[in-house]
Amino acid sequence: MARTALPGRLSARLEWRVATLADYVDETATARTLLLDVPGWPGHLPGQHVDVRLTDEDGYSTQRSYSLAAPADGERVELTIQRVADGEVSPYLAGDFAVGDPVELRGPVGGWFVWHPSRTVPVLLVAGGSGIVPLMAMVRARRQARSRAPFRLIYSVRTPMDLIYASELRRSARDDGGLDITTVYTRATPEAWPRAPGRLAGSDLEAYGWPPQFEPTCYVCGPTGFVEHVATSLVNLGHDPRRIRTERFGPTGG
Ligand SMILES: Cc1cc2nc3c(=O)[nH]c(=O)nc-3n(C[C@H](O)[C@H](O)[C@H](O)COP(=O)(O)OP(=O)(O)OC[C@H]3O[C@@H](n4cnc5c(N)ncnc54)[C@H](O)[C@@H]3O)c2cc1C
Question: Name one Pfam family in it (predicted).
Fold first, then answer.
């Protein structure tokens, strides 16, 4: 049977490429940002992700998805990996994977959970834990494009020690005009924090998000339960489900 030719851009995305770890940054005790060099990388939009494939000497292979943490920058790609204690892949990528080591990578993947820097409508970003990664790519792309789109970020983490990108977010909150950032702690807060620790509630979304009348595009990312809870709360507050875009960081192993 004759094979159907794939359009060039699609086949470029499906192609596995060999990336090399150029450097890394430890963000927290359990999260590490990997700076990868990917020859021939076709570029990407903030919000997209990649598939990463690992293969051992016996030929056993497994793959996981990871969000792109920064806007496109030539052949450099940035991922932030949160170690899952009993995980198969994340403890290696955020642990023994060393500078100069190769890894296979494919993408970019995803066309819905993306933000175009040319867009001007208000944006609400809601992150749970490592769900901050693709939303940080949007915050960074906004800054890079000198966009004036009004942004609000609500970031839910367990404790102050779990904050990924903590110092950059502090700087962004101070310097990026039109960006408001609220951190919600679920288990322990910094001293004298105005909000008691607890799960992100509809009242938090109401207080720190945009009113539905502003018709913001909402991007929600994190563990599956968190995403479903936030998306339902946003709908209950009156947000149009068509303006709520979600990304679930559930298990992706295969
Ligand atoms: C589109 C997409 C983008 C993603 N982007 C990122 C990212 O930017 N950074 C990142 O760190 N992760 C991201 N993930 C999650 C990632 O793909 C893996 O699921 C995660 O790294 C765990 O893989 P593992 O092999 O270490 O654990 P596994 O061996 O797959 O799982 C071990 C155990 O942990 C549970 N588990 C699996 N995944 C998670 C999770 N995310 N949180 C809590 N428990 C889990 C499993 O149910 C299992 O019990 C993304 C997932 C998707 C679908």
Answer: FAD_binding_6
